[in-house]
Design goal:
- It contains 7 helices and 5 strands.
- The chain is 55% helix and 18% strand.
- The longest helix has 38 residues.
- Strand 3, helix 4 and strand 4 form a beta-alpha-beta unit.
- Helix 3 runs parallel beside helix 4.
- It is of the alpha/beta class.
Length: 158
């Protein structure tokens, strides 16, 4: 399961997002919710979620400010913007920061599922690559400590 954090200044939206949508069916646990970007950053430092679903307009720290900070401090975290604003300028800024989706309120289950399924596919691909590299490194260490296949690893050991 991947970890998700929901960030929205409206409590009823946070509650509905965390309970109404099929997070577990899509491969996610909602670890926490936050009412603004500042609180979200504190939680992110503790939980380090795989995905942050954030509103764009919030007090104290907007969703775009949060995305900018995450790209600097936690570039591995995927971000999906949730907004009531169908504004090209917001979407353009979000794309500049590499967000994985831009969903409009009111959020449709179909749109949510599509974005989250795409994220799971991407996360699974990253996990497989990491696992393959780990397996290769482990096998290389075993072979080298046993003196096997040394020539095979010359290019990696120089």
């Amino acid at each position: 399961m991947y970890k998700a954090l929901i960030v929205d200044d409206e409590k009823n939206i946070r509650d509905r997002l965390s309970t109404f949508f099929p997070w577990d069916e899509l491969g996610f646990d909602v670890v926490k919710t936050a009412e603004n970007g500042k609180v979200a950053l504190e939680l992110i430092n503790q939980e380090v979620p795989d995905v942050v679903l954030t509103d764009i307009m919030m007090p104290k720290m907007t969703g775009l400010e949060l995305v900018k900070e995450l790209k600097h401090s936690f570039p591995q975290i995927n971000v999906v913007i949730l907004s009531a604003y169908d504004d090209f300028e917001y979407a353009q800024q979000a794309i500049k920061f590499g967000v994985k989706g831009y969903l409009l309120k009111p959020l449709l289950k179909k749109d949510f599922s599509e974005v989250m399924n795409n994220l799971v596919t991407e996360l699974n691909g990253k996990k497989k690559v990491t696992s393959d590299v780990h397996d290769f490194n482990e096998q290389m260490l075993l072979d080298l400590t046993e003196g096997k296949n040394v020539d095979k690893y010359n290019e990696f050991c120089m």
